[in-house]
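Hi support team,

I'm opening this ticket because the web form for multi-chain structure prediction keeps timing out on my end. I have pasted the exact lines I submitted so you can reproduce it. The total is 665 residues across two entries, so I didn't expect it to be a heavy job. Is there a limit I'm missing, or should I split the entries? Thanks in advance, R.K.
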Amino acid sequence: MPPLVVAGRLARSWWPVRAALVAFVLVCSGLVAAQPRAELMLGVAGAPVADAWNPVRAVVRDAPGAVLRMEIDAGGLEHGEVPQRVTARAAPAGGVQRIDLDVPFPSWRRVSWRIEQGERVLASGGLGARERDDRPLHLVVSARPSLWADAFGPEARVVVATAADLPARAASWDGVATLLLDGTAAAPADAVVVTAAAAGVRVLLPLGGPAGYAPLTRLVAPGPSALGAGSLEGVPAAELAAGRLSSTPVPAWGREARRAAVVAAVAALPAPTWDHLPKLLVAGVAVGFAALLWTLLWLGGPAGVASAALVVVAAAVAVPAAGPSDPEPRTRGAVILASNGLGVRTELVALARLPEGASELDGRFAPLELRRLAWADGRTVVPLPAGGRTRLRGAPEVVTVPDDVREATGVRGDAPEALRALVPSGGSLVRSGGDWWLLFPSPAAAASSGDAAGPAPATATVRGRP
Amino acid sequence: MMPATVTLRLPRADAGLALLLAAIVVVLIGAWPERADLANASWYPVAVVRTSGLLLWGWLAGTAMEPGRPARRASLTRLGVAVVATAPLEALAFVGSAPSASLVWTLLVPLPLAIGAYGGAWAMSAALRRVRLGWSLPLASPLVVAGLAWLDVQVGPPLWLPWLLPSSPSPAAAAVNLAVALVTVVAASGPWLRGRGTP
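Hello R.K., no limit was hit. The queue was backed up. Here is the completed structure from your submission:
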């Protein structure tokens, strides 16, 4: 019998085994595919920046109700461990779910995170102190990123990103100094670019480019301009081809001015106070009560004792009125750096607390000093000692400038000196409600004062608060 | 201290109550904040002064060895009256300070504490007098107090220490002080002790 025939018979006799093996492999691969998966990205394009708000994105698959837990140790040798905890939950549904949030990263000693579902940990990881970097990012969206490696200086932190990496929320841009799009990679949405500029980023766009860049090139066609706290600038094709940036930055608020404005405005925030009873009144009531009670008891007898009892009962009834109306007073304000109709708003909160415990705030707020706190499900929980105080800043958000503020001019005389010092010649400092508006000089005002601000406002559709 | 009105069994004010009220009022006024931006932290010093004062009152009354059941009852009644009379002042400080503590606890715990102190001092002085060491009472009192304080520090939850007890409610402190106070009240009212002056 030829060997091939024998092999064919053997193969036919083994087919049930093969079928079982194939079925086993299929079942195993199905099981593996059905396993819940999770991954996390910290920072824009995976590059977190210390002392800045950073985007955190967790993607979970087939893990309904998964919870992201992150602990940031903001302490050091001097202060010991200062934990700041983040808790966020995915929607209780199957398929792919995302948790997107902005977290203020301090200058961390350690960051650890895990995504868990019930008792099961789906993913975990962390960052050590060696991975801490507080230099702002210079984002390059390019198909030839090596061209731009030295374009921002030797100390610059240049990070290559794609359009999909670019965040849509203003707070996510807190750690970014520059965004460069050279037109060689896929273009992001124009709203993303405008949000970046309004948040304080220097955005560099090609003056000409492929068809996908048309909405972006239109933004810089009239010339460079300040927008919000940042700027939009066009880069000529020759510079893009050579991989160098020769133009000087257009005058704009910028990232540092935004940070300085927050510090100045929060220092000017009125301290929250309690409405204690006046000390003189308390002294009079206490002395009067003690003297009356002692006298009645000294007189003695049923009448004296009964009267003393009545005095005590009356005092017990009146005592609740001595409490402060709000044991957790808060004062709020905001500072907005604006130009060309858009601004970046940072909410500021000063809170105090009479009893020891945790104060809760809606939204995520960053502490201005080193302290332990937690962000849980969109709320900020700040533990405070009895009589404790703290000041916090909210996440930056893009707003449109209302007409009454836009039309205001000049600098208010009662404005804090630190804020007044930030306003350039021709700019305005306006108080509206509890908010301080710092308006960058309009092109006309800048021209009259000899400044070189951009000639035309950029217009784009962006979601903002009126 | 003035004796109770024996005929009606009603207490009368005395110098001890005046001193205690004055101390509490002074501390309350001193600790009350002068400005609205200052936190009101007046409750804790007021609570410490009130609890300490009542504890001291109970201890001193216990060592006085008043003979006879009516006198002992009058002493305990005076303690109870002092607890009630000083409570509104502490409540005023508590409400103004809004501390994270229990108002009911801080107002009530001095009563069993003071009665227990009365019983402890009474038992100690009676025992010393029985062995003819009554003369050593001024020396023994602070030694026993220091020993009890040391014991309280060692055992864990505060049981007697007046600067810790108001802000540290615990079942152990409640049970110990209530038990000692109950024994003291029963012993002070018991017919078997009539006229002997011993527990």
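A quick check on our side: Chain A touches chain B through 43 residues (CB under 8 Å). Let us know if the file doesn't open in your viewer.
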